[in-house]
Amino acid sequence: MNIDEIAEAVADWQHTGGPVQLHPGDLGWNWRFGPPAVRAWTRDGRIVAAGMTDDADGLIRMGIAPAVADDPGLAAQILADLSDPAQGKPATAVEARFGPALRDLLARSGWAADEPWTPLSRDLTEPVEDCGLRIATDVADRVAVQWAAFPNSTFTEERWHTMAAAPPYRRARCLVGYDHDDNAVAAVTVWSAGEGRPGLLEPMGVHRDHRGRGHGRAITVAAAAALREMGASAATVCTPSANAGGVATYVSAGFRKLPEVTDFRRPGE
Question: Start and end of every N-acetyltransferase domain (predicted)?
């Protein structure tokens, strides 16, 4: 199935006040390595669910159309396919933040709660305050900040160009924040799902040499402002609950914490 069609379907499932589930930005960010491995489920010729393999260990990140979120038949089909070697490598963990039927079936089938995550959201109805940094997009600086923010980063300019050439990036921007000395101190990529839908921050990072000065909050505010300019109804993000500093940064930038969620891990894994 055409991955562009899947990305558009995933975009269509984003709705204000809804869960922070698989987003076109997740597909777009993973596209830096080339088109991500994606599975899709259809009903009457329409895509109603999609799962993206996010790591070599078999984590599947799910997105489900709101209209079929309570469908037990679809949930059973998804779980069967995720366990069938003929359908691809069986999933060892499933990120199912939405879809009561699938979440209930996973729990009843013995899948255990995994790492807790904290979703956050900022409403973009009102104008966003000035962030206090100069904001620009420079590919070399975007890559340099990513390396300085994440010790195990594999980001390169070549991978940025691969990501930027992918369909989801048509509704995305990379932002680099510069301090008063014109140092590149923080960066973020923001992904729109279209007019009137929640956008996503993925990822956000602060240069290790410039931490503790409020730059994380500033670049997050800049991200919210950019998404509002792009027509997003809200800015969303999800971070491990153990990342207390990250959660605090988003809250300081006007984001509201939503109920904590966990992935599901296959029994025996």
Answer: 119-269
